Amino acid sequence: MKFSLKKTVAVVGAAAMLVSVAACGGSSSQGAAGDANGDVTLNLWAWEPTLKPVIKAFEKKYPNITIKFNNTGKADTTVTSLNNAIQAGSGIPDVVQLEYMTVPQFVIGEQSQLANIKDKTSGYDTFYTPGTWNSVSLNDGVYALPMDSGPQAMFYNKATFDKAGITEAPKTWDEYYQDAKKIRALGDDYYITADAGDIKVMTAFLWQAGAKPYESKGENVTINFTSDPQVKTVADFWQKMIDEDLINTKVATWADEWNRGIGDGTIATIFEGAWMPANLVSNSAAAKGNMRVALQPNWDASKPSNGENGGSALAVTSASKNQDAAFKFIDFANHSKEGIKIRTDGGAFPADKATLKDADFLKGSDEVRAYFGDQAYNEVLAEAANQVTESFQFLPYAGQANSIYGDYVGKAYTDKSTTLEKGLAAFQKALAKYGSDQGFTVKQG
């Protein structure tokens, strides 16, 4: 049985409003928007561990509000669970953490499943970095507050660069290509990077290049991987890298072999979000002292730009009976100096402009600085955040795009019978069909 987002969202929304107070974690003393004058219990779904000390500080400041933290494990699980709760019309949380790319799928439709908080956020647009604020601002509304960000950067092994005679990090993609050949010459196991088809990394590449593969306005969606010149620029570059055996296409991101390759330097660079440093310290400890971070190479070094890889926001659900109290929490966690500092002290990368200029934050932790050879790693990552453009849009059904990307585009990394260009064209066709089946009006570029 097909589930139509467009046709059933109103029904789901109506059902969600009938959710019992207990299921929503609400209090019977609260009105539909939740005036938060009495005792309130909020149900929070999230996976970010830095929220635990935030909750403790928030409950101390607001003793009448209790937060029940349901750790959903990871972003994809959260989306699946929230979709299931919406369809069932019960168990919907008051507050939910969502990756930026998945926010639109809960907003687009006849009725948004996330509360529009625009009237509570006047002036907030200048508080956050442009890319993160743009990601929560949809259809002339605001549907979440940015929690963290993931400007993409290049993490590289300096020891491997030194061994290959590379004296500085590449500033352009052409320099990166030339460096790839030098590293490949070190031996059969050496590659400048490993990629078996990672949609989040590719999305950041497209974002940086100024591509617009997705554009949406309400239920009208345009998907364009076939005639956008910036998409072609990115695809052609990485196809050349694949064809010339300059990247390791046999090792998938996050696999044990990937972590080992980063650690021993046979994978010389990786492209990930600014949240990556702590993961490197934990998973690729052998690279301690050798790892560095640099800005992602640009197509035009005189006009630097960047894209986001990951990052998330906190949203109040439209089904919540305690929306005022729920907003107090997301505002404390993501907009107050106290809440933001708690999270950044725990290793989160901020979404607000002020923290990106804060001396303590830019200094970073002693442990991570040691891993990066005493480099001021957060200074580089803050610059990467400032280079993110605000023009990129996500697909209203990003979850579907994530789930089928490997079947089409990812296949081009490992199957010589196809190419990234062909894979992207097939990916576009599949996404257009899916969107039409869900009730969207889809145009292909």
Tell me what the structure shows:
The chain has two domains: 5-149 and 311-357, Periplasmic binding protein-like II (D-Maltodextrin-Binding Protein, domain 2); 153-308 and 373-444, D-Maltodextrin-Binding Protein, domain 2 (3-Layer(aba) Sandwich), CATH 3.40.190. Helices cover 42% and strands 13% of the residues. It has 18 helices and 13 strands. It has helices spanning 5-16, 21-24, 51-61, 75-88, 130-136, 158-163, 173-184, 199-209, 229-243, 256-264, 277-283, 323-334, 337-345, 359-363, 366-371, 377-386, 398-414, 420-437; strands spanning 40-46, 65-71, 95-99, 137-138, 141-142, 145-146, 153-157, 214-217, 220-223, 269-272, 291-295, 312-316, 441-444. The chain has a five-stranded mixed sheet, sandwiched between helices. Helix 17 (398-414) runs antiparallel to helix 18 (420-437). Pfam families: SBP_bac_1. Belongs to the bacterial solute-binding protein 1 family. This is ABC transporter substrate-binding protein. Keywords: Signal, Transport.
In short, what is this structure?
This protein has 445 residues and is α/β, with parallel strands linked by helices. It contains 18 helices and 13 strands.
Fourth-level CATH superfamily of the largest domain: Periplasmic binding protein-like II
* Count of domains: 2
What is the distance, rounded to the nearest whole angstrom, between the alpha carbons of the first and last residues? 29 Å
Q: Which sheet architecture does the biggest sheet show?
A: 5 strands, mixed
- Principal-axis shape equals globular
- Specify the number of helices: 18
Main-sheet strand order equals: 2-1-3-12-6
CATH topology of the largest domain: D-Maltodextrin-Binding Protein, domain 2
Sequence stretches where pLDDT stays below 50 over 5 or more residues: 1-34
| SS-based class | alpha/beta
